[in-house]
Amino acid sequence: METDRAPLRLILGGASGPAPRRDPDSPAPHAGGIALRSAATGPRPVPRNAIERLNSVRLLSLDACGRVLDWMSWQDAACLYARDAVAWTLGEPCLRVHGGTSRLTGEQSVLDLPPIIAARGHARASALDPTPALTNAALFARDSYLCLYCGQHFSRPHLTRDHVQPVSKGGRDIWENVVSACFSCNSRKGNRTPQQAHMPLLAVPYRPSWVEHLILSNRNILADQMTFLRSQLPKNTRLVT
């Protein structure tokens, strides 16, 4: 299967602006099915990192009532269309998928995928607003990659998960009891509470809602998706979008 995409506007974790599109008059693409055309150099294969970036784009999945479910890949979205399971969509197409060639017409099938897709049917109550999995990646994203003791910004490899109430003193490994901490602050705090260590927290830890979690877990959110997700955020959200 070959893929191409329309211009994407990235909100988080990447530069915005139009992406090159494949020229339909260019020669057949190289292995991998994708080629870009430059006015200066003509057709050229898409670099592997560009293909990886394309595959990193996630489409927002909703149920028929418009309730947010999860992110999905373009492959999963294409399967929804193949099963005629799409109820409605939002946003301008952001990905173009080229399928097989019809034996009857000789034409290749083309599917334009929008950034937000609602599937037929209704989600089970247990599938709505589930508790986000507590992972270091999600935790560091919640805390904006800051050490909540010294306030310094760190890259992911230089952050740790600190239990505000130490586990050895009955603290639990839950969202409301963990914060991002640099190695130095975590070591200095040791097996003590912030009060005992005289290291006050810069923010109170909290459990993000499912919508907040989806925003935190995706660095390539498209403009239409972000607009929709913002409208679904709880009124008391602490998330800065």
TrEMBL record:
InterPro entries: HNH_5, HNH_nuc, NA-targeting_endonuclease. Residues 134-187 form the HNH nuclease domain. Keywords: Endonuclease, Hydrolase, Nuclease. SMART domains: HNHc (SM00507). GO terms for molecular function: endonuclease activity. It comes from the Bacteria. PANTHER family: OS07G0170200 PROTEIN, SLL1193 PROTEIN. This is HNH endonuclease.
